[in-house]
Specification:
Elements: H1 3-9, E1 19-26, H2 33-42, E2 50-56, E3 65-71, H3 74-77, H4 80-84, E4 90-96, E5 111-115, E6 118-128, H5 131-139, H6 150-162, H7 168-176, E7 181-189, E8 192-197, E9 206-210, E10 213-217, H8 220-225, E11 229-233, E12 239-243, E13 246-250, E14 262-263, H9 265-270, E15 276-277, E16 280-281, H10 282-296, E17 303-306, H11 311-322, E18 330-332, H12 351-355, E19 356-358, H13 360-363, E20 367-372, H14 379-390, E21 395-400, H15 428-435, E22 439-442, H16 447-451, E23 457-458, H17 460-463
Parallel strand pairs: 14-23, 17-20, 20-21, 21-22
Antiparallel strand pairs: 1-4, 1-10, 2-3, 2-4, 5-6, 6-7, 7-8, 8-12, 9-10, 9-11, 12-13, 15-16, 18-19
Helix pairs in contact: 6-7, 10-11
Length: 481
């Protein structure tokens, strides 16, 4: 994705998750299309660039798949009329934000493949680190690619392995032996719904049930949206197969628990606060992060505020621990869609002001503690601190509910190259001066484990120590933030 395309709609210095997935199979034969649509609504925070749904009727002609996908938000891509044309009791859906592969309709998911054994529809969240090598191998044996995303590499490998295995789930396991990196997959075959999570568990994936229908999705909040009950999380390395005969599990790719490496940013920022991931409440994690910040980096102040949305729970935690009142300082415009055109530098309009405004009455004359989830390049933080001071805040003390970013991510989060990270080659005191804060402190690294109930997690973007050997070159596709 070119920088100017990215500029059109990424209007603040925010991180982005790559995708959200949602698959459903109704054993009573009821149509699942509308439930997938509402499930994707609940996952919209995981990707606002493109989305898609593919459904099939298990009793109908084998391999007939109806599919709609396009650029934009869920409510922009799907209309009542278009959803009415899609009928199926099994289906998969996807919301996307690109980190690898450019921003085009061809790269929207789910991917639907017709091959000698029937059809596959696949939705993927994550990033492979060996996708370029696998792609070259396939190209040299005659494969023709229609997208630039690594999800197509996964789909090809599953299809290829299926020729030599007795079932599609065995083909998924064999493909997993070749692919390396982060992936949560939902795969629809003509009579089965399959979920797979990489052996490190980078990305979340869970199973739910509503009446006689089963769901595999990225987050528990999507289950609640469609009135389904949570059954369990898919284990890191597990392949789950859902058929009318039952739920089958293959754990042959699972690693010892201590080798797992969940993305810590699911808890800090990506996931919706009402989700639970691997038994841990995202909301509670953020409350704890705020409490730890108050314990480790206290300051005398009159008001604690969060930068919406992900800073709010951590700000509440800071307030609860410190006894400093929690308040609202920012009003967020929730209607800034993906087609937002960023003001040119010569314009007086600030893209931050278009998205956030300060409530001057709340901060005037006060010493304010401002909690945010991260500082990436620092371009937004300095403007937000400046806006608080312009509104009359006497002091602004910034507290960040994650450690400083020092390294890029190769697993589906768009953390840029090191040179663009504000914390690279700068001390905390230097960064404080750059953003204009009166004081600055980050969450301490050793607090991350406490925040997620000691679940094994990846800290690569803070420490440079990744759960697996990172690629020797930056393989994050055409996207460079």
């Amino acid at each position: 994705m070119s920088n100017n395309m990215h500029e059109q709609y990424d209007i603040t210095d925010e991180l982005h998750e790559e995708c959200g997935v949602f698959g459903m199979y109704d054993f009573d034969g009821n149509d699942v299309t509308s439930s997938i649509y509402y499930g994707l609504f609940a996952l919209q925070h995981r990707g606002q660039e493109s989305c898609g749904i593919a459904v099939s009727e298990t009793s109908g002609p084998k391999g007939k798949v109806s599919s709609i996908k396009g650029m934009g938000l869920v409510n922009e891509v799907f209309t009542l009329e278009s959803l009415d044309t899609m009928k199926g009791d099994i289906g998969v859906g996807h919301v996307r934000y690109s980190t690898a592969g450019s921003s085009t309709r061809e790269n929207a998911q789910p991917l639907v493949l017709n091959y000698v054994k029937g059809t596959l529809a696949l939705a993927h969240n994550g990033n492979l680190i060996n996708a370029p090598q696998l792609r070259h191998e396939l190209e040299y044996t005659g494969a023709i690619f229609q997208t630039t995303i690594d999800s197509e590499v996964i789909a090809y490998h599953i299809a290829r392995e299926r020729l030599n295995t007795k079932s599609v789930e065995d083909a998924v396991v064999r493909a997993m032996r070749k692919i390396q990196g982060a992936y949560s997959l939902v795969v629809m075959s003509p009579r089965k719904l399959i979920g797979a999570r990489d052996p490190y568990g980078f990305k979340p994936l869970c199973i739910g049930k509503r009446d006689n229908a089963y769901i595999i999705t990225s987050e528990t909040c999507a289950l609640e949206t469609v009135d389904a009950e949570f059954i369990r999380d898919v284990l890191p390395g597990e392949v789950v197969t859902i058929t009318p005969e039952g739920i089958f599990s293959d754990t042959s790719m699972c690693k010892p628990k201590e080798k797992e490496g969940r993305c810590i940013f699911e808890y800090i920022y990506f996931a919706r606060p009402d989700s639970h991931i691997d038994g841990v409440s995202v909301y509670q994690s953020r409350i704890l992060a705020g409490k730890y910040l108050a314990m480790d980096s206290p300051v005398e102040a009159d008001l604690v505020v969060g930068v919406p949305e992900s800073g709010n729970a951590a700000a509440l935690g800071y307030s609860l621990q410190s006894g400093i009142p929690y308040g609202t300082a920012f009003i967020k415009n929730g209607y800034v869609g993906r087609t937002f055109i960023k003001p040119k530098q010569s314009n007086r309009e600030s893209s931050v002001r278009i998205k956030l405004n300060v409530l001057a009455e709340a901060v005037k004359g006060k010493r304010v503690v401002m909690i945010d989830d991260s500082i990436v390049r620092g371009t937004t933080s300095d403007r937000i601190v400046g806006m608080l001071k312009e509104a009359g805040a006497k002091e602004v003390h910034v507290r960040i509910s994650s450690p400083p970013f020092l390294y890029p991510c190769y697993f589906g989060t768009d953390i840029p190259s090191r040179e663009q990270l504000i914390a690279y080659n700068r001390s905390v005191d230097d960064i404080k001066k750059v953003i204009g804060a009166d004081s600055l402190a980050y969450l301490e690294l050793n607090r991350l484990g406490e925040m997620v109930d000691q679940l094994p997690h990846c800290t690569g973007c803070f420490t440079g120590k990744y759960p697996m050997e990172p690629p020797t070159e930056d393989i994050r596709g055409e996207y460079q933030a």
